[in-house]
TrEMBL record:
Keywords: Endonuclease, Hydrolase, Nuclease. Coiled coil: none annotated. This is Uma2 family endonuclease. Signal peptide: none annotated. Gene3D superfamilies: tt1808, chain A (3.90.1570.10). The keyword Iron does not apply. It comes from Thermoleptolyngbya oregonensis NK1-22. GO terms for molecular function: endonuclease activity.
Length: 199
């Protein structure tokens, strides 16, 4: 009797849910995001991007209480994904909620942050993530202000939430950013892109 070899049935690869991902806790080291059921490791930033985000952190620390600030260390659950923004201004209510939480994760049941800042890394995938996907996600989450700092284009886009959608103003060169959240902010695009270095 001859038998015909059979091909094993493909294994079903069930994607993780946000709850599954959050339940993993500290199983993974390093920065990562959770998108469409998959854990995405985030490579180290370029020196310039790291300097820009630290410069903005130091600048914002002069304008808002330090406990309101998070720098590359808080997860933001939004639209079935988990993002890890470069810089976040929490606000008083969210800062209090996070202080009482065991994990530095902003869930959808918590208040929205007041401001999220992303510094764009080179490459189309990175541009799409910050300009398209995160723009939609942060708007859905109700984040009042979102800044996109783009060293390649030499611009800073300040997006303000109006009736559920972001309206964007692009700033370049020596233009001073205008922020509804931080009206006393006195900072130009050139200063941000120099990241505190003298001219």
């Amino acid at each position: 009797m001859t038998t015909t070899p059979t091909t094993p049935a493909p294994q079903s690869t069930q994607k993780l849910t946000v709850a599954d991902y959050l339940a993993l806790g500290d199983a993974f080291e390093g920065r990562r995001e959770f998108v469409d059921g998959e854990i995405l490791e985030m490579p180290p930033e370029s020196n310039l991007n790291a300097q820009i985000s630290v410069f903005l952190l130091v600048t914002l620390a002069q304008l808002v209480p330090v406990p309101w600030l998070r720098h590359k260390d808080v997860e933001l659950v939004v639209a079935g994904r988990v993002r890890m923004p470069d810089l976040v201004v929490l606000g008083e209510d969210l800062a209090a909620v996070l202080l009482a939480s065991e994990r530095s994760t902003i869930t959808e049941a918590m208040p929205a942050p007041l401001l999220v800042v992303e510094v764009v890394s080179p490459g189309k995938a990175n541009e799409d993530r910050d300009y398209r996907y995160k723009r939609s996600e942060y708007a859905v989450r109700g984040i009042p202000e979102y800044w996109i700092v783009d060293p390649m284009r030499q611009t800073v886009a300040v997006l303000r939430l109006v009736d559920g959608l972001y309206e964007s103003v692009d700033y370049t060169s020596d233009q001073r950013l205008e922020s509804a959240l931080l009206p006393e902010l006195n900072l130009t695009v050139a200063e941000i892109l120099r990241a505190g270095k003298p001219t």
